[in-house]
Amino acid sequence: PAGARPLGMGMLGGDLNIRDEEVKAVGRELGDAAASIVDAWCFVGSPDNVRWTWDTVENDNVGASFSCKSRFDRIFFVSSGVADDPAAAAASIV
Q: Does the active-site annotation cover 55?
């Protein structure tokens, strides 16, 4: 908003139970305002070996009778200068 102080940095992280499609829907709804929001996992290169935070195959203490892999735990951040490229930032919200 006009006259508001610029945001230095903000972070949100935790067991958000949010799925990829839900994150994309929020990004679409926020439009340009989402340009500076970055998914930390994407920011560090999206390493496959740490993609899933809930994996019923790898985590044998779940006791699930089904196979499922999801990335429910996430960290999002906003930091001026880090996500100034809207195209790159939009691609990182996955």
A: no
